[in-house]
């Protein structure tokens, strides 16, 4: 594996400024800001993909399932050089590539079009199976979902399959802002553990705790990291 993480073109302290360039009534601000720190740590320290390697078969894949709030995602991609910040003020505009839901054909670095909740994790399972079928065991697949997405049955089918199948290339990041309609008995981690996943729960604003969880060993099992942030108001 020779692909490295992307060197940030802008520092973390610029993320709020970048997000402020995106305005409008449909921006889903709380959904976006809940993901900001986890996305920064992933792109800054974990994901082996750069603007120059977005088409390399050996790159890591990141799937934003929580696509209805993409402002933090766009800001982090800008900060890591995937596209220029001049595009941000056009966010959501008719002629802008930066839609309220990301489009993989328009947004440099985006792996999927998303926004309809409950599809990212099943797509991530399929991505791992596709990589295996090609003999590509090095690339890792990460998917970011919201805790409310666990109200969707499609996720539970994917969870139930991935554990027993031993998909250790699969990594699921759950942003828990307590917005789920149906709480999980025993907590979110217990749902994944019951299906044979390795699961960790951390403070979603603590960069070192996030990094430690993201890089934890989980041989033979998929990894779930539940990142708790302040409840959605």
Shape: globular
Strand content: 5-15%
The helix-strand sequence is HHHEHHEHEHEHE
How many strands appear in the DSSP assignment?
Answer: 5
What separation lies between the terminal Cα atoms?
Answer: 43 Å
Q: Helices and strands: which structural class?
A: alpha/beta
User: Helix amount, in percent?
Assistant: 25-40%
The total count of helices amounts to: 8
Main sheet overview: 5 strands, parallel
Strands side by side in the biggest sheet: 1-2-3-5-4
What value does the average pLDDT take? 92
- Low-pLDDT runs of 5+ residues are none
- What Rg do the Cα atoms give? 16 Å
Plain-language structure description:
The protein has 233 residues and is α/β, with parallel strands linked by helices. 31% of the residues lie in helices and 12% in strands. The chain contains 8 helices and 5 strands; from the N terminus they run αααβααβαβαβαβ. It has helices spanning 15-20, 29-33, 36-46, 71-79, 120-133, 153-165, 188-194, 207-214; strands at residues 61-64, 141-146, 170-176, 198-203, 223-228. It has a 5-stranded parallel β-sheet, sandwiched between helices. Helix 3 runs parallel beside helix 4, helix 3 (36-46) crosses helix 8 (207-214) and helix 5 (120-133) runs parallel beside helix 6 (153-165). The mean pLDDT is 92.
């Amino acid at each position: 594996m020779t692909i490295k993480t992307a060197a940030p073109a802008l520092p973390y302290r610029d993320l709020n400024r970048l997000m402020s360039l995106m305005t409008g009534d449909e921006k889903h601000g709380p959904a976006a800001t809940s993901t900001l720190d986890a996305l920064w740590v992933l792109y800054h320290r974990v994901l082996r993909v750069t603007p120059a390697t977005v088409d390399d078969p050996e790159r890591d894949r990141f799937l934003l399932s929580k696509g209805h709030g993409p402002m933090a995602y766009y800001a982090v991609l800008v900060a890591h050089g995937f596209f220029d910040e001049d595009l941000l003020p056009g966010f959501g505009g008719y002629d802008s590539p930066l839609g309220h839901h990301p489009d993989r054909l328009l947004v440099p670095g985006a792996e999927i079009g998303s926004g309809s909740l409950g599809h990212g994790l099943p797509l991530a399972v399929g991505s791992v199976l596709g990589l295996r079928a090609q003999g590509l065991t090095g690339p890792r697949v990460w998917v970011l979902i919201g805790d409310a997405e666990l109200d969707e049955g499609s996720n539970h089918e994917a969870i139930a399959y991935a554990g027993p199948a031993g998909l250790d290339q699969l990594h699921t990041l759950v942003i828990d802002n307590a917005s789920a309609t149906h709480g999980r008995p025993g907590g979110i981690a217990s749902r994944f553990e019951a299906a044979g996943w390795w699961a960790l729960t951390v403070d979603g604003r603590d960069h070192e705790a996030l990094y430690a969880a993201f890089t934890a060993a989980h041989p033979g099992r998929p990894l779930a990291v539940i990142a708790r942030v302040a409840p959605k108001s």
